[in-house]
Structures are given as C-alpha cells and as structure tokens.
Design goal:
The structure is a homohexamer. By secondary structure, chain A is of the alpha+beta class. Helix content of chain A is about 30%, strand content about 30%. Chain A has a five-stranded antiparallel beta sheet with strand order 2-3-1-4-5, covered by helices on one side. In chain A, β4 and β5 form a beta hairpin. Chain A starts with about 20 loop residues before the first strand and ends in a 12-residue tail after the last strand. Chains in contact: A-B, A-C, A-D, A-E, B-D, B-E, B-F, C-D, C-E, C-F, D-F, E-F.
C-alpha cells in the first residue's frame, strides 16, 4: 500500500485534484463524548433553563468545518455548500453527527470529521469545570458519497445514529 | 452543578479570569487512532523510506494548539510557551500524547486536547486513501497542573502512555 | 415567518445551497461614521500631507470581506471575484460604500456589510486618540442582484451615495 | 490635532506601547440593529420554540472580539481575559452591549466595538431571509477604564443600556 | 504604465475578475536561502538521524500558500487544486521550488511565491539558533501558464532548478 | 551543532521558553525587491497622483507580522507591542526595513522577517501586471536585542539602511 500524499522526495504534498470532476459530494461523521450522568443532566437542564451547551457546540462545529484547510495541512480549500450537526443526549454521553455537502473536486470527509471533533471539544470545554474526566471516543466517518472512490458506508453497531440531511 | 460559561441570560460568555494569578500551567492530553495493521505498517515503512506521516501530524498538532481560541468559542487567547507531541506506533493504532506549557492566568488543557485531536485527524487524512475505517478514540486529559483548581491526574489503564516533557 | 438557518432541533445550520445555480451576484452596502468636524478635517489634511486614514480603512474593508465566513458563523465560504470601496468625506462624517462581486451559489451581501463595518471600525481605530465619541451608524444593504431572490434596491434618503462599480 | 498611527513617512504603523504599564482595562460598547416588528417577534418566538438567533450572535461576537487584531490593521494582539454580551430585544430593534476585560498594555475598546458589530451582523445574517432592510446603527463606545488616557464614559440618551459586568 | 489595482480615488481594490474564464492555471516559484556550510550540513545530517528541517518547511509552504488571500491584501480567494515543493540542498544554501495548480479565474503566482517565502522563513526559524546570518535571496516567479496573459517563463541562470510537477 | 527545535524522536517541537525572563526585545529586518526602472517610476508617480503601492505593502507587513505564529509552524504566539516599516524607493528596487518590539519571553526576529517578506510580496502583487520579472532578494535580520542570546547586529554592505525606531 502506498500513500498518495507524498512526493518523490518523501515529503508531504497537497494531492493534485486539478483534473477531477466537479460533483456533488456528501460526508457524514460521528463522534461521542462520554461523561458522568450528572454532566449529561446539567446539559439537559441547561437547555431548558440556563444555557444551551449544545448550541455553542453546534456553532463551533460549523465554524471549524470551514477552517479545515488551515487545521489539516494537506486538505484542499473547498466551497462547502451546507453543514448541519445533530446531537443525541444520552444518559452518560453526547453523540454528535455531522453532515457536510459540497459541489467540488474532492470530498468533504475531513470537514465532517473536524466538525464533530470541534463540537465534542467544545462540549468538553463548556463542561470541564464540573467534569474533568470526560472522554471523546469513536470519531469516525459514517458515510461518504460522490467522487471517483464511490459510496462508502460504515457498518456501525450503535443504534442511535440518525444522520441529519 | 452549575456551568461557569453562561451569563444571567443563559448565553455563553468567556469566563472572566482578569483577577486570576499568572502561574506556570502544564497540561497533557492523550489520543488514539485505531487502524488496520497494514496501515500501521505503511506508516512505519514510510518513516524509513518514503514519507513521515507522523512528522506532518506533529506540525498539525502544534499549529492547531495555537489556533485553539479560534476553534473553541469560549477559550481565552493564551501565550503558549511550549508544545510537544509524542507518538507510539502500535500494531493497529497510533497513540498521541501532547504536552502544552504556559505562564498565564488560565490553563492549557483545551490546547493539549486540540493538539492530539488535530494530530489524529491529520493521520486520518494522510492514510484515508488506504484505510477509510480508522477510528479516533479515547481523547482525554491526562494531567494538568498549575492554577487554583490544583493538580489533576487521570487514572489511566493504558501502559503505553509516556508523557513528553 | 420562519428562519431558514435553523434545523429541526432548533439549532443553527449552514443553509444547504448545493443545488442552487452558479450566477453572477453583486451586493453593495453603505456605512457611515459620524465624528467631530475637527476629526474629519484631520483625515482630509492627512491625505494631503501625512497619512491616509482612508487608505488603511480601504485595505481593512477588503481583507475583512474575505474573512466573512470566519466572522459570521453561518456564512458560506465564497470565491469573491472583486471588491471595491468608496469613501465620501463629509464635514462631520465619513460615508463608506462597498461593492462585492461573485460568480457563485449564494449572495455576497454579508461580505459587503462586513467590508463597510471593518472600514468604519478602522477609521474609528485610527482616529480614536483625537475623538473617542465617534459613532458608526446606518450600516445597511444598498443593493443586491443575482440569484433566486431577485434584485433588491433599498429606498435611500441620502443623496451622497454613489456606488462604486 | 495629530494622528498617533502614522510614521514620519506618512504611513500607518502599530503604535509602540512597549513601555506602557500593564493595568486592568475594561471597555463596553453599544450597538443596535433596527428591524421590522415581525422580525423582532420572530426572534422572540425562536428563542422559545425553535432557534435562538441571539445565542449565535453571542458566540459570533465573542469569537470576533478575539480576531480583532486580524480585522483592524493597527490593533495590537491582546490577551483578553473576559468577554460578555447582553441583548435587549425591543419591539423593532435589538440592542447589543459588550464588555471586554484585559490586563495589559493597551485598551480593549476596539475589541468591544468589534464584538457588537459582529453580533449585529450575525443577527442580520440570520434574519435576512425575512427582512432585508434591517439597519445597524449607533455603534459606539459606552465606557472605558484603565490606562493612561483615563476613564471615559459616553453621555448616552438611551435608557435601555445596562452594561454586563 | 498603469496599475490595475487602484480605483478612481487612487485606493487599492481587489481587481474584478468576475467575467474571466475558468481555466487550468499553474505557477512555479523559486527561492533560495543562503547559509554557512555547517548549517547546510546540519540540515543534511538531521534528515538522516534527528529531525527533518525541510519536512517542516514543506508543510509550512503548503499551509501558507492556502493563506495567501489573508497575507497579500488584494489577492482573490482561490480553490487551489494542488501544491508541491522541492528542495535542493546545496553546500551553502537550500533552494526551494514550488508548484501550485488551480482551475479558476485568476492565476496562482502569488500562492507559489508565498509558498517558497514561507518555506525559506521556516528554514531560517528552525536553524537560527545555529546561524543567525542566513539570507533569503532570489525569490521570483519561474513559470506561469493558463489565463489571458499567456505563458510566462523566466530566463534563469541557475542550473539546479527542477520544477516539481 | 544541534537543533533546538527537535524532540528525542526527531520531530519538530515548539521550544519550551516557559522559564525565560520577560524582557524588552527588538528586532529589525531588511528586504529588497528589484524591478525595472519603469516599475519604480510607476510606484513613485502613483504615490503622487494615483495610488500608493507602499501604503498597501505597509499594512500587509504589519498584519502579516501579527500572523507569524500561524505562518511559521514552531513560532510562539507573542504580544507584539509595536511594528513599523520604512521604504526606500531606489531607481530599480524598493528596500523595506521593519522594526518589531515586544516585552516577552522570546524574540521577534521571525516577526520582523515575516513583515518585510509580506511587504515585498505585496509590492510584487500590486506591480506584477506591469513587471513579472521582479525579484525579492536579501531578506535578512539586521539587528536584534533583548533576551539571553544578546545583541546581534549584522555587518551590512548597503548604505541605505536606516532602521525605523
């Protein structure tokens, strides 16, 4: 197996996608942050009466997805045409699912992964004063379509994944 | 339990740390990205002869840590005084451990967490052409010192964690 | 009336414009910063002999317009194809008019508004040592064309608006 | 009257504050965006049932304040230690008041002004599909303390200004 | 001779390229940083056993090229489709050659020049503890194709220029 | 000779400056862009009647210096306290000299070098329509003071260097 991201001298390059077709590309990613039940409760209560942690995480995820080419060194700049995130508040975790859309020459899976990562990190930041042992886990690509490499759909175990469209 | 990040109107604020002391603060975070054994092999081979995936991930982690206040909405701008990352290449995963230092009014745990997240995402990006089912897991704070909230050290299970100093 | 920027869970999203047509889109915005007559005089004198406040404001407006997607959370990244600003130096105010052009899937009115806002804020910054009570007022969209929502032209009262093309 | 921001050649410079004292500095700014009563109603309803425009504007204001040195060309980079925004939802307008704190060598009035500007622009962006004639007005400095230039407090006409602390 | 970058008022504008054709555009730039032979040796040794200065410079060049519109005030945002850098390690210098590709309305020569500049500056930064008198010289455009202004190829003296494709 | 920028694994790190003293640090850098005499004439004429290329280059240099930590991967974020640039317009070149000041734990030589680089690149961008063969040369550190490594002053040949203070 060979990496596409290295040149003849063995140094990283931005892969040349000049001649690729412009097609509609969609990617969804999944992320989960585990926490104490009290922390999950505090998030739930917050939404109702005091401050919506997930609203801030939503904005963070969308803004970070747009910054992907300045966070991931070899990513191409892209004209993202839509981003949405969904949250499932479980008793001891929050699940985040992102969907990113594009009409362009290369896919948006990194953008989708950056969105869920930034959302999970923001939840951590907002809740860390009450729970420092939260753990981000299971950040992965759920689904990807458009482009030459074809449709990818991960076989997932978790039942709670409902991808926002 | 109450969030510190919300104002009286229930909207997020950047917590006021004006009157906090300037002290030396250190934080270490852990992250892991699981992959096929062939992908781990390709990373190991690459270092020897063709292209060092982890060198790019290292740069990505350091640069992302500096961008933390523009990725995590309520984070304070900080004058980071040192960042390092260490990688453990396992047979089916890469472990990343970051250490971030600061002399300032608030801690650098978000910077440490952003560093490992960006490093893991960059590994994903560099290897995704050969393995699309990689999973980032177990991103968490390892240790944190300095500041009023005192020393925090996570009880960890994994033996392979050697924190860079 | 319903917002287009919220998903089913009531959280903000970047509106999906994937299927919109790529058309030429132009937007012009207006802004005004009121100041003491002495401040306006100092700006006028400066241009002649010492330092052109408006040249700095011009650069600030153009650079800020390009940063729109990182300032306004739900804005799409766009490939702006032209930006210009005009200034009218009145006896007690400076008027700023921006024109932004694009061939793309969604309009550039936010870019035009960000450009005049940044230009006015920069004038404030450059002059604040001599006049701290300047007031930015009347930032609004002047005109917008291209795209499905059709031509918009604000009915304006002020005579001095000459839109740069 | 003379500008401090120009060098001997008549070109803009970042004013040298190296020898200034590090003191606590606070600045508050005011902004207002006028809109149709229906738009104000939609914002009020949204908060209750569907999507909080002002929560997004709050995050935008805080994040933009941190970006001030990259938006306003001659601004110094600063270690902001706290930011908060308050909103007053009137029948035909939203008022925004920001407070920014710092312990540093130069004031945060530009940060406070950028925060209200970005919040107003975000409100415009979120509501523009239902009201394209909104007008941002009366962006100005409310109060400023700390530093050599002393305390500044604007004489204001509007009764509704309650500065968040 | 007349500048295209100024408007009627004599202030800089982003040139209007709205009506230009979308074509494939390629640009290559050259840069050189001179240093003591011992510094060049240290870079060569580093690659073999301790740390690859040029790998960091490579990542810096690619990431900086993507930031061109936020570094060069009048540059258009562009969807770069490929970037690569090559290094020639001479006995008392490092040569850097960048190639940037795009399918768009305006050329990528500034992106190519920014890439070599950032790479040279990064080499300086990584080596400055051992050699403070390094000099960056001869940054220029090597070649440019695509677009109305036609093919440009610099007549160069140096034999060592091999442009990466 | 050994690099300070690499860790035990041979990968780049941000050097730990936590325990260094906070002192006043000043750095000056020099850059030169050579051009046809007609191009130099056009810049001179422009200042008088049509558009000041060097005013835009000045703003670009100042803004780029502030972005140094996001352009040069291992640079520390710093609280720059002053930046100025001077230009000497020669018959076939423009010389740029930057001075950057700081009270902090590490020097600002990279900031000074980034400032002159960005100024030269901006001059190139503004003039490239009339002269594509301009060459940036001789970017180097002129002087540096403050900090443990002591005073550095380059022995220079060119008479025209007058460092702005």
């Amino acid at each position: 197996m060979d990496f596409t991201h290295f040149n003849d001298e063995g140094r990283a390059k931005m892969v040349d996608v000049t001649s690729k077709d412009i097609t509609v590309r969609i990617a969804s990613a999944y992320g989960k942050i585990e926490m104490k039940p009290q922390t999950s409760d505090a998030i739930k209560m917050g939404r109702i009466k005091k401050g919506d942690v997930l609203a801030v995480a939503q904005v963070a995820g969308i803004m970070a997805a747009k910054k992907t080419p300045s966070i991931i060194p070899m990513c191409h700049p892209l004209l993202i045409t839509g981003i949405d995130l969904k949250f499932n508040l479980l008793t001891d975790a929050v699940e985040v699912i992102s969907t990113v859309k594009l009409q362009g020459k290369t896919g948006v899976e990194m953008e989708a992964l950056v969105a869920v990562s930034a959302a999970c990190l923001t939840i951590y930041d907002m809740c860390k004063a009450i729970d420092r042992s939260m753990t981000i886990k299971n950040i992965y690509l759920l689904e990807k379509s458009g482009g030459k490499s074809g449709h990818f759909k991960r076989k997932t175990e978790t039942a709670s994944e409902n991808i926002p469209r």
